[in-house]
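Working notes for the structural subgroup meeting. M.R. asked for a predicted model of this chain before we commit to crystallization trials. I am recording the input and output together here so anyone reviewing the notebook later can reproduce the run.

Input as submitted:
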Amino acid sequence: METVVRQEVIERIIYMVRGHKIMLDSDLAELYGVEVKQLKRQVRRNVERFPADFMFQISKEEYESLRRQFGTLKRGEHSKYLPYAFTEQGVAMLSSVLKSKRAIQVNIAIMRSFVKIREMLSAHKDLARKLEDMEKKYDSQFRVVFDAIRQLMAPTEKAKRKIGFGREKEK
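Returned structure, recorded in token form:
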């Protein structure tokens, strides 16, 4: 079966809000090939399927933080309604609300992405624990090696390139 959406695309639109991995309603609507208002309408018609741990409306501060952090959240920039955030369970529940073939295929791809992210986080924790155990075993002469490994494991921030022309500084 051909994948409807590449996993990398999905992984880029999974955000962390309130300690949950979430996807925004506008991103989900785009993946499913429906309008945001259609997705929200189906959710409202089946609101009992979406408790607070499945779906919640993000606050203005959270939305602004996401926009600053990722800069790509331009859709809905001037919308009068704040977006809904769907947790992994909420996205799974959407498959029972949106019943098109595309929705089913997209949901499968999204679930695989959530699983992959969970596995990567788990592997990272296991690696950190093993490194700590090894550090306790060996003496201080290996501290430099362990510090170097920790630096490699630390999340990196991409350097932001300035856009536009810069003036040459006078000497």
